[in-house]
Every structure is written in C-alpha cells, then in structure tokens.
Amino acid sequence: MLHERMVESILGACKQFGVPSPSIQWSNRMTRAAGTASKKGIKLSIPLLRTASDDFCIEVAIHEAAHYIDFKFRGKSDHGHEWRKLMTILGYPNAERCHTLDRSHLHRYEIICRTCKKSLAKYTREPAASFLSRRRSACCHAELGFKKASIEAGH
Q: In terms of CATH, what superfamily is 2-89?
C-alpha cells in the first residue's frame, strides 16, 4: 500500500543518515502544501496526495524527510545547497521546491461580489466575517459575500 511505502521511504532516509525516526502525521486539513517538516517530525496532506501519482507521493515523502534530516543536522532547513545535496543522495538530483498539484477540487467556498454576483476567488475554508467586511470587490466596489462552491463533475 502507498501509505506504508511513503512511511518506509521516510524511515529509510532517516536511517541512511543516522537520525532518529520522525513523528509522521497525516492531515485532512492541509490543503496548501503536500507536506511539511520540522525538527520534531513530518506532516503529509491527505487531500492533496489522495489524487497524486504514487511516484509523486514517494518524492514528497523523501522531500520532507530531507527537510527533517536537515533540521537534525543544522537546526534549520530551506531549499538551499544542503537540502539539495540531501535530495541528490536520496535519489532526486533535480528536486523541485514546490508542487503543481491541482487543488481546484478542494475549493468549497467562493467569494462573490454582492452587486454583480461575480465569483472573485475560491477557498478551501469558509472565509471569516472580518475578512469579508474589510474588503470590497474590484468590479463594483461592493461588499463581498460567499457561497458554497459548485462541485464540478468528476471531482
């Protein structure tokens, strides 16, 4: 199963560099990043990785493991030379900083102009009332509202 292969990839990378195993969490709320890492552990996005290819998921696991290892060695991590060197050793010499996963299926709310009803933006979480009250639409300079986004067929 892919989930186990991702965990095995992370644990194998950590063992290769002699660092302790990280805590590994799976998040249903993460919708901007496929994964994150800190000096304590790794968190992976269920919604984003659910629709990704197996190869991409394994690369995300290794990407975050490299950050975790970097944190253990240097106390910090970025996408600089040290992280790239770790990724190369782990088999990904052309690693990218960011993913290009389609997130449109996660957008549940639309910000709309209350005057012309034009859809202005889409979000995964319900926008706060304070967010809506502080801004005006660019089209009509009217108050903003929100509605549940329509789900397209196939998502």
A: Metalloproteases ("zincins"), catalytic domain (3.30.2010.10)
Least trusted range by pLDDT, from 3-7, 15-19, 126-130, 138-142: 126-130
- Cβ neighbors of 68 (< 8 A, separation 6 or more) are 10, 14, 19, 22, 37, 38, 39, 41, 42, 77
Q: Where in the chain is the domain with CATH 3.30.2010.10?
A: 2-89
Q: Where are any strands of DSSP class E within the chain?
A: 23-27, 35-37, 41-45, 109-113, 119-123, 144-148
Confidence of residue 50 (pLDDT cuts 50, 70, 90): confident
Q: Which residue type, as a one-letter code, is found at position 134?
A: R
pTM: 0.71
Residue 32, both tokens: 């901007």
Between CA 155 and CA 19 the distance in angstroms is: 40
Q: Distance between the two ends of the chain, CA-based, in angstroms?
A: 23
